[in-house]
Every structure is written in structure tokens, then in C-alpha cells.
Design brief:
It is a single chain. With 294 residues, the protein is an alpha+beta fold. The chain has two domains: 159 residues, no CATH class; 125 residues, Roll (Pnp Oxidase, Chain A), CATH 2.30.110. It contains five helices and 16 strands. The strands form three sheets. The chain has a seven-stranded mixed sheet, with helices on both faces. α4 crosses α5. It starts with a strand and ends with a strand. The relative contact order is 0.14.
């Protein structure tokens, strides 16, 4: 549950604060004590930020003048990784990722970006955090707690609440179609593409096959989260855009046979029986089990 400020916020920062609360809520983060946590996201306000960064052998200076909303995400184990994001309403927004090298313990810059739009910077910071910080250290968003600076305390009246059930409108959309859009980050960058899926309404799980010639998702074997984009049938308008946690099911998984048989039974225009198809997939494919966050 993420919450918005009880005390007045600078009107220029208020839209950014709202976006931060929504993003924290969408990822299912909960407030918690940094001590003992696997990963911590700290949120606060900073002023006149200056960062001297060295990319390869070339140093450069990143400036964020005035007040900005600052996010610091740290993963202490097994090696220190952290990210910094500075969201400004009237200047360029920056984010950076750093990590401890395994072979010598030196800290290196892993990635950085700048954006004019705070919303773009925030979305990309969370997307890249999943890859450069969490996946790199075998963590997920479930392992992250967030804490707030004393100057930025948030109250219940603007709570963004989690839900473990899929809303009726989302269920209806999932039942009526077999195609949705998926957005995820892989080693070669961000991907967005339409995918065929099977929706198990009883379990509230979405299953996406990767490995057939018609549907190969780059980096599917390492995917841990994604964005599910549902659209009205025959229209370009979105029904919803939701975060999802991903479990990769391959041929060695105990659940493979049961899940693959279900997916194969719903797959149209393929030769052979569903059982034969599932057996063929075992060596060639993985199945992604998606659990919507809200």
C-alpha cells in the first residue's frame, strides 16, 4: 500500500508525488524497516542535486537544480547494488544504477538515463531497477520495502491499495480475447509486443507460451515481471495496463505437464493432440505464468 502526503506539498512536486505513490502501489511495495530487509526504497525530497559520474573513462556532471523527489533503491546482498532517481518538475530528470563487481569489489556505473518528463523517468527507473538491481541479485519487488523521509510522510486518505483479485472488467476482457500486449525488459532492452495467452479464470493466472516460431519472447527465461496491456477488441483504446509477477515454467518444472496440457488444449491451428503438442514444447519452449498485481 502506498500513500500520499498528509502535509502540504509544493504544488510543482505534487503531480510527481502522486505518480510515485501510484507506482509504489502498483508494484505491491509495503512500508517497512530498512534493517534486515533484502532491499529498501527510500523516498524523500532533495535540493540542488549534483552528481559527478564517470561513464567508462569519461566523467560528466548531472545537475538537478531546485527541489526534486529523490528515490534511492538499495540491495545490500550478495553484492551491493543501488539506484538513484531524481524527479524534477522544471529540469531534466536523471537516474543511475551502480553495482559491486564480483571479481574485485569495485563499484561501477551499470546504466543511466535522463528524461525531460518525470513520468517517463519514473517508469523507466522502475523498469530498469527490475533488471539491473533485483534480477541481478536474485530478488523481486516482493523483497523490497519502502521508507519515507521525515519531511515526506504520507497518510491513509490517498492510499493506493493492493488487491489480490482481478476486477470483473479485467476478467471479462481476459475471457473475451486470446491476444494481449506485453511489455518487459530483457538484456537487449525493452520489448512491447502482442502475445497469445490462455487465461485460467479459476486460478486468476495468465499463461504465455514462448518458443514457437510464431511467438518468441526475447529473454523469456529470465523474465521476473512485466506489464500486461489489455485493449478493447477491435479498438486501439486500452482497457487497463497492469503490472504482473512472472514465474517461468520449463520442461523440468513439476507443474510442466499439467500447465502445458491446459495451454496446448486452448492453442488453435496446431497439428496433433494437445498431449503431443505439450511433449514437443517441453524441449523447445517455456511457459510464463503471470499473476496480476492489481
Amino acid at each position: 500500500m502506498a500513500m500520499a502526503p498528509t502535509r502540504p506539498v509544493d504544488p510543482r512536486l505534487a503531480p510527481i508525488v502522486r505518480q510515485v505513490t501510484q507506482t509504489i502501489g502498483r508494484h505491491g511495495l509495503k512500508p517497512g524497516e530498512p534493517e534486515g530487509a533484502k532491499a529498501v526504497l527510500r523516498v524523500g525530497i532533495e535540493e540542488d542535486v549534483t552528481r559527478l559520474i564517470q561513464a567508462y573513462w569519461t566523467p560528466f556532471q548531472a545537475d538537478v537544480p531546485g527541489r526534486s523527489i529523490a528515490l534511492h533503491l538499495e540491495v545490500p546482498e550478495p553484492r551491493v547494488h543501488w539506484g538513484e532517481c531524481y524527479l524534477s518538475p522544471n529540469s531534466v530528470c536523471w537516474f543511475f544504477f551502480f553495482g559491486e563487481r564480483e571479481y574485485d569489489g569495485e563499484i561501477q556505473l551499470l546504466y543511466y538515463e535522463q528524461h525531460k518528463d518525470p513520468a517517463d523517468a519514473l517508469r523507466n527507473f522502475f523498469d530498469h531497477s527490475n533488471w539491473y538491481l533485483l534480477t541481478a541479485t536474485d530478488n523481486t519487488w516482493d523483497d523490497v520495502v519502502f521508507s519515507l523521509a521525515d519531511e515526506l510522510q504520507w497518510g491513509e486518505e490517498y492510499a493506493v491499495r493492493e488487491t489480490t483479485s482481478v476486477s470483473p472488467a479485467i476478467q471479462e476482457s481476459l475471457k473475451k480475447s486470446t491476444i494481449m500486449w506485453l511489455r518487459w525488459r530483457a538484456p537487449d532492452g525493452e520489448h512491447t509486443m502482442p502475445v497469445w495467452y490462455y487465461y485460467d479464470a479459476k486460478a486468476s493466472k495468465i499463461y504465455v507460451l514462448s518458443g514457437e516460431r510464431q511467438q518468441v519472447l526475447p529473454g523469456a527465461e529470465r523474465m521476473r515481471e512485466c506489464e500486461v496491456i489489455l485493449r478493447w477488441k477491435g479498438k486501439s483504446a486500452n482497457v487497463a495496463e497492469l503490472g504482473a509477477d512472472v514465474r517461468v515454467i520449463d520442461g523440468s518444472d513439476p507443474d510442466w505437464t499439467e500447465v502445458a496440457d491446459k495451454v496446448a488444449e486452448k492453442r488453435l491451428n496446431i497439428p496433433g493432440t494437445p498431449e503431443d503438442t505439450a511433449k514437443r514444447w517441453r524441449d523447445e519452449c517455456v511457459i510464463l505464468e503471470l499473476t496480476l498485481r492489481s
